[in-house]
Amino acid sequence: MLPGKLQAIALLLCISITSTAITPEQLQLYYSNLNQELARVLILADEHPQNAVIFCESTLADAKKLNNDHLTQLTYIILSKANQNMGNSERAIQFADSAMRLVYELNTPELLPNIVKVKAEVLARNGKGKESLSIVAEAMNNAKKAKDNKLLVEFTLLQSQIYGQLNNTDDIQPTIKKAIDIASKERDEPLLAECFRSMGSYFFRLSQFEQSLEWYDKARQIYSLLPDTLGLIAILKNSSLAFRDMGKFSEAKSSLDNALQLAYSTNDEKNMADIYNLLGSLSLRAKKNAEALEYYNHSLTIREKEGYLVSTATTLENITKAQRELNQYDDASINLLKAIEIRITLNDSQGLASAYNEMGNLFSEKRDLAEALKYYLKSLKISQEANFQNEKARAINNIGITYRKLGSHRNALKYFDQALELMSDKSDPLGKAYVYIHHGNTLLDMGLPDKALESFLKAYELRRTTNNPISISQSYRSIAAAYMELNSFEQARSYLIKAHGKLEEAGDEIGVADIFNELGNLYLKTNDYGKALSHFQQAALLYGKHFLLDKRGLCLRKIGEIQTKLGDYTKASENLKLALSLGESTKNEKLVELTLLALHDFHLARGEHREALEYFKQHLQVKDKFEKKNMDESIWQASLELELDKKAEEIKKIEGEVETLRTEAKLKSIELQQQKLQRNFLAIVTILVIVLATVSIYGYTTIRNKNRWLNEANEKLLASELELKKLVNTKDKLFSIIAHDLRSPFSGLVGLTELMMQNAYTLDTQTISKYSSLVHQSAQKLLNLIENLLHWSRKQSGNIRIEPTSIPLKRICDDVLNVQKLQADAKSIELKSSIEEGLNVFADYDTLSTVLRNLVSNAIKFSHSESVVTINGYKLDNQIIIQVVDKGIGISPENQSKLFKLEESFSTQGTNREEGTGLGLIVCQEYVELNKGNISVESNANDGTTFTITLPSA
């Protein structure tokens, strides 16, 4: 090692280690602050792990010479990460354990999250999910004991990441919420931003992009204020992916441009390369293939210069995708072989599976389907061996697509079904929807549109949750295609209209043009030429705007054909000649052939037989060329079948190996389930033995307690039964009151109004006045009954609010007497009050007013004409006494005991035969008790009645 390097490492002795937890993103900066060369090696742990191991082995020797435990610890962390990336699981865990031992010796807990992360991820990747979660849980408990909430947040977030790795989707969100709660209480802004970012990534994983962006934006605001450039770059990259997958390409581009500017300002070349790679991905998604290639090449230049081997391979694969779209197959093949070579050098099996998938895509595009199938199967074999779920599903789906292209629909469906079985609705809804679309298209090929429709609808349900207008519109179009095949044209039209709305929302004019074209075809099929013409014209206009000349030509041809049928020959001629010109300039021979035939039909319709014959000859010449091409196509198909026959043995061999691995994986899964069941069985047996022993020891006590509980329960049950009987009787009585007392006034109302109706033109004024008075009395009785029922029901349901205040007693009594004066005047009864000023009662005004109105109304009802009803009031100790006194017919002793009981209530006619219900007094008693008072009665038959209310004094 160079002396300068030794001096740099020696500086570590003087550096005080921070006590703040270091996030995985911050680890690079942490190393950079200590030693730039070691920081670079940390990157190599991910990018070129073999070189990182070589460097670290010599660094460990230097650390021992310098007796520098801090340097040793940092080197162990790099070695654990490098071995993890090389697939050396045991070595990765050994180095992580060595680094962890030094954490306690050197008091560097801030490094714990990164160390625990390596161990947990290695175990999870090797199918040891429980052990992985156990390690994280132990770290969380230690953080709780140490009352280190910052570390606790980091470990909680790590737990959510492991749940994600294990596809325990339901556990991720609650775990991140816990982390957010702790970080919020700590008021730790950097940690809170990290939590928000994790929540955003959780929703992104579920393809719920709007929610994802909400959380990313919360994190972005914090990173902007800190300021944390690395965090801000990371969150801008995350946001761009969410925008991209929503089809919002301009917003995605804006996020990446801002991130790139920040990366340049800090001379962060690693992030520059990442951002250029993402810009390429965005351009490719937006069908800007040349622009995508340019961005990818920028990324490749940086990554090759810095020696980032893994990232270089990834960029080479991405370049291949762009070159494939640009039909640059030879260049694409060269770059992909370079990527494969790097993956093999790095022993990167997951990357190799991905590269083989891309090679399959390239051969598929070149129409070498046999070779494509071979590479897809190679990818599947690697993924099956290492249990790479995503790559496995991708390879299986690609195999299905290839078999569909070969016309082997049964095989295609078999593989699509396998892919669907592997994929989760929650964790990869878009991927699963993509498979359903291919599944449905295969069923359409087989002439099963009803079955295809089922698959398309499932795809739509998965895409619907993403709020991505473009992907949703694609599902609508697939559904419309199935309905078209079923001749359900109205449903097809409905879904095409929905697709149009989504594409308008996304601002995708080319997609909108496609919908107009499809709607034109639909209307053409149903002979609605007017609407077909209108939609083809709109499609042609948009295709022209975007210089899609061959598509514009196809629309113009159909426009010309319709105009010929409608007899609009001038416009038909113009459009057909323009379509022919576009077909020739774009070398679209099919468009030329069909347009020549349309021109033949045009001239034939006009009776121009010579011109018609000329165009028909030209049509036949182009058609002959097509037949030759079709023959070439048949030859190609035959050669393909021959090639398949040659490679059939190799393909079948790989398929057999894959099927064997698949079977082994299933058997292993069954074996693990059996082991789990056995463990659970043993645990249950052990628990049962303990329970039985406990029951034996405490049996007598338990039985005795149970007997006591049973007796108590029986007593409660008996009390409940009595209460229930009471409630039933109350209910029956209430219904009896309602039935009896509503009937009489209503009978009176019906009879009187019938008389008035029959004799409306013969009754004199005096009789009408008399009848009106009787109607009023019946209505008043009904109103009184309903008011009392309302008051009683409000009390029973607990909906009445009591707001006691200090009330002047004289004022409330005078108010009540004024209200009841009309009733008293009808019987020439005098209403008097002997209450003096200054007497205040503590009660609720509304309920006390109701009580007094009921009592005064009853007193008037049971008093003789020209008698007196009096309200008295006085103070006794801390109580206010209120009395309502009349000199009426009185109440017998046997009836007094029934006054305040609904189940025993009775009704007595007043001195003028007024009817009553008995409900009013029940309401009075309950309202008085609500105001913490009581009510009593004193009466003798034919000697008047006195009701006494006692309430608290104010």
Describe this structure in words.
With 954 residues, the protein is mainly alpha-helical. Among the domains are: 3-187, Tetratricopeptide repeat domain (Serine Threonine Protein Phosphatase 5, Tetratricopeptide repeat, Alpha Horseshoe), CATH 1.25.40; 766-952, Heat Shock Protein 90, CATH 3.30.565. 77% of the residues lie in helices and 5% in strands. The protein has 37 helices and seven strands. It has a five-stranded mixed beta sheet with strand order 2-4-5-7-6. A two-stranded antiparallel ribbon has the order 1-3. Helix 9 (149-165) runs antiparallel to helix 10 and helix 17 (309-325) runs parallel beside helix 19 (349-365). The protein is flat, with a radius of gyration of 44 Å.
Question: What about the largest sheet?
Answer: 5 strands, mixed
Tally of alpha and pi helices: 37
Termini gap: 95 Å
Strand content: under 5%
Arithmetic mean pLDDT: 82
Low-confidence segments: 1-19, 630-648
> Strand tally, please?
7
- Quickly give the structural class: mainly alpha
CATH topology of the domain at 766-952: Heat Shock Protein 90
CATH-level-4 superfamily name of the domain at 766-952: Histidine kinase-like ATPase, C-terminal domain
Rg on CA atoms, Å: 44 Å
Architecture of the domain at 766-952, according to CATH? 2-Layer Sandwich
Topology:
Elements: H1 3-10, H2 24-34, H3 36-47, H4 49-66, H5 69-85, H6 89-106, H7 112-125, H8 129-145, H9 149-165, H10 169-186, H11 189-205, H12 209-225, H13 229-245, H14 249-265, H15 269-285, H16 289-306, H17 309-325, H18 329-345, H19 349-365, H20 369-386, H21 389-405, H22 409-422, H23 429-445, H24 449-464, H25 469-485, H26 489-506, H27 509-525, H28 529-545, H29 549-565, H30 569-585, H31 589-605, H32 609-758, H33 765-797, E1 805-808, H34 809-825, E2 830-833, E3 840-843, H35 845-861, E4 868-876, E5 879-886, H36 893-896, H37 919-930, E6 934-939, E7 945-952
Parallel strand pairs: 2-4
Antiparallel strand pairs: 1-3, 4-5, 5-7, 6-7
Helix pairs in contact: 2-3, 3-4, 3-5, 4-5, 5-6, 5-7, 6-7, 7-8, 7-9, 8-9, 9-10, 9-11, 10-11, 11-12, 11-13, 12-13, 13-14, 13-15, 14-15, 15-16, 15-17, 16-17, 17-18, 17-19, 18-19, 19-20, 19-21, 20-21, 20-32, 21-22, 22-23, 23-24, 23-25, 24-25, 25-26, 26-27, 27-28, 28-29, 29-30, 29-31, ...
